[in-house]
Every structure is written in C-alpha cells, then in structure tokens.
Amino acid sequence: MAERSAALRGRLARSALRSVRARTTIAACAAVAVVLLVASAAVLLLMRADLQRSVEAGAREQALAVAALATDGHLPGELPLDHGTDFIQVTGPDGKVVAASQNLAGRPALAPTGIRDGHSTFDLGALGDEHHQRVTTVTADTPNGPLTIRVGASLHTADTAEDLTTVGLAALSAVLVATVGVVTWHTTGRALRPVEAIRSEVAGIGDRDLDRRVPEPGSDDEIARLAHTMNAMLDRLESAGVRQRRFIADASHELRSPLAVLRTQLEVAHTHPDPGVRAEMVAGALQDTDRLQSLAADLLLLARLDATSHGAPRETLDLAELARTTVAARTTVAARPRVELHARDGVLVLGNRLWLGRLLTNLLDNAQRHARTRVTVRVGTDPADGTVLLDVTDDGPGIDPADREKVFERFTRLDDARSRDDGGTGLGLSVARDIATLHGGTLTILDGPATTFRTALPGAGQRAD
C-alpha cells in the first residue's frame, strides 16, 4: 500500500510538472533569472571598472605630484600619503630607494612578481595588508637621473562595494524570481481555471445530454472564444442528433405504412376467392413494393452521402452533356410533361457523374410531378465568377417562401398542391441538396412566378470549398 501511494504521488508530481501552469511558471522564472543574471553581471563590471578608474586616478595624481617634486629637486626623504593611498616608493636608476612613505621606510625596493589584469603585481605582504591594491608607476627625469615612482592605492573599498553589491543583487534577484514565480503561478491558475471548467463539463457530456453547454467567461479573450466555439460545436452536435432521431422516426413511419398496406393486400389476395380481386391486390402490392424499393434506395444513398467526405472519386465532366443524356432518357415517358433543355457544350465541373446524374434526376422527378405542361432545364455559367448553374423550372403551383427551406428537409410534407402524396418518397430534394453540398455547391429555390430549383457548382477550374 505504501509503495502504491508513493507511486501515485510520484505520478501526480510528474503530471503537475508537465502541466501548462508549471511549465509557464518555470519558463517565466528562468527568463527573469537569465535577464537578472546578465544585468547584475553588467552592473558589477561597470561598477568595478568605475571604482578602479577612480582609485587609479587618485594614485596617478599622487605619483605625478611626487614626480613634480623630484623634477624640481625638492623630493623629501619621507613622503606623506594622501587619502586612499597606501604607500609611495621612489627608486633611482640603480634600483635603490631614494624616498618612500613612512610605512615603507627602510624597506628594499618593490620588485614586480607578475602581471594581473594588465597591471604589474607586487608582493605587498610586508605591508600587512591582504586586500587588493593597484600600483601606479611613473618615471620622472631629474638632474640626478630618472627616478621611478610607485604609488599603491588600496582596492579595499572597491572590493567591499563589489561584495556588498553582489550580495544585494543576489538577494534582490532571488526575491524578484520568487515574486515572478508566485505571480505567474497564481495568474496562470486563474487564467486556466475556465479551461478546466470547460474540460470537466465536456468530460461529463454524453450522447444523451447534448443539451448541456460549457460555461463561457465574461472576458473577450481566447478562452472565451474557445468556450463559444465549444458551445457552437455542441449546438451542431445536438442539432445533428435531433435530426438523426427525427430521421429515424420518420423513416420508421414511412416504412411501416407501406409495409402494413402491403401485408394487408397480400393477406386479402391470399384469402379472397375471386381471381380478379387477387390480381388487383397483387398489382397494388407490386406498386407498394416499388415504393419501398425506392425509399430503401434513397435511405441508402443518404447514408452514403452522410458518410462521404470531399475525398470521393471525381472526374471532369460536361454538365451540359450529362443533362442532355438525362433529359433524352426521360422523353420516352409520354405521360410526363415534356422537358425543354437549353444548354451549351463545354460547361465543365469536377464531380461524381453518378451522383450529379442522381441530383438532376431527382430535380426532374420533382418538377415533372408538379408541372402542368412544361419543365425547362438550363445549363450555363455565371459571368460574374464562372460558377456553373443548373436550373430546373416547372410551371406548376409555386412554393410559399416560408416553405422553401422546409422542402429540403427529409420526409417533409406540405399541405398545398406540391405535397408528395402522388408518388414521391419525400427524400428526393434532400438527396439533391446533399449531393450539391458534397460537391461544394448549393441548391436553392429562386424567387419568381415559376418554381425554379437552382444548383450552383464550382467550375472545373474553381476550388470546391
């Protein structure tokens, strides 16, 4: 149990470190730490250089003053020290000490022991000082020959200031990094709290409660737009679910009615003694069977269209030639109103020949079912943008503007003369619009005295969005 608890805590710790909140906090702290490190190093270097220049300037000024005394021949044996100067020593051409400050009286000449920071270094342990010193050397020409003047200035103040500044900058940097970490942690947590609310709400939404929505924060930022997009997606999913359930219910109803009629006709034909009545019942049963077959074919096609993406096989085809072939096949049926075709060759589209033929067939079925005397088919292009237009017009009763979208719904029944009680399955227009949409086009009803169904498709050289 203890090992399991330890493993669980380890997984939770690793998960916390991999979270956006932790990564953002670590990144912010690291960035601030790097900036503070570079800035602190620059401040320390500039400060040290400035302090050393000040010390060197004071030592050089003292050395030049001693050189002036030596040049004038007024060099005393014991030289006084100015503030900030540790020692003075003057040696002659033979290397012997000519004059010195009181703390170097009686001591031999200083000898360089190496080079440090571009300056000669000396062993100053005899002075009893362990701090850094800067030694400035000046040569003065005198009547007795050249003299070498060495003035040592203490860097103790500079070192102390540098140490204190380093400690102060380190403490300030630590406080700033910790402050940035705390602020970033809490700010990121508050910013991501709506995201967690969205995630938990989405995780609890099942296929039975698509009416639930994620909370939308009042701010106008990316998270609010994410929540709005999620709710819009849930709206679409809910609408799709409602449409699917309604479609299943309508399909069940549409299949149940003809099946009941078919069963009744077959039972009567089976038991009725009159051969004429049996033949009539069988003929009616065949008609209902045809209706069921058409309905089943439409349902299967709708299922295929719903499951098909824009990646369906397509070819470049002449829509005018396809319309001409389809119309010619229908002129053999004398009982239907005649169809007039107005089309010019070379109207090219990129699509599926079988499905586009089904689109035109469904539109012609609908038009001929409701036309009084004539159906007109026009194929052309829109001169404005090159969109291919397919218009199917009939001279039957018009469709009320309020019903022009409703007729494209599956199993829609209208109460006027354009109802489908005379043989339609109620799926033809819905199938036609789905085919047009799948090809990146639209299917709408135009305003006018006649009923015109217009299909607009991208040309072969246009992009089907």
Offer a quick outline of the entry:
It contains 8 helices and 14 strands. A hairpin with a 6-residue loop joins strand 11 and strand 12 (about 390-395). With about 475 residues, the protein is α+β, with helices and mostly antiparallel strands.
Distance separating the two termini: 58 Å
Question: What would you call the shape?
Answer: rod-shaped
Oligomer class: single chain
In round numbers, the mean pLDDT is: 80
- Total number of beta strands: 14
Note down, in words, how this protein is organized.
- The protein is α+β, with helices and mostly antiparallel strands and 465 residues long.
- Helices cover 52% and strands 18% of the residues.
- The chain has 8 helices and 14 strands.
- The protein has helices at residues 2-17, 20-72, 156-203, 222-271, 275-307, 319-330, 353-370, 428-438, and strands spanning 78-79, 85-91, 97-101, 112-116, 119-122, 133-142, 145-154, 315-318, 338-343, 348-351, 374-381, 388-394, 442-446, 451-457.
- The chain has a 5-stranded mixed sheet with strand order 1-3-2-7-6.
- Strand 6 and strand 7 (145-154) form a beta hairpin.
- Helix 2 (20-72) packs antiparallel against helix 3, helix 4 packs antiparallel against helix 5 (275-307) and helix 7 (353-370) packs antiparallel against helix 8 (428-438).
- The longest helix is centred in the first third of the chain and has 53 residues, at 20-72.
- The chain is rod-shaped, with a radius of gyration of 49 Å.
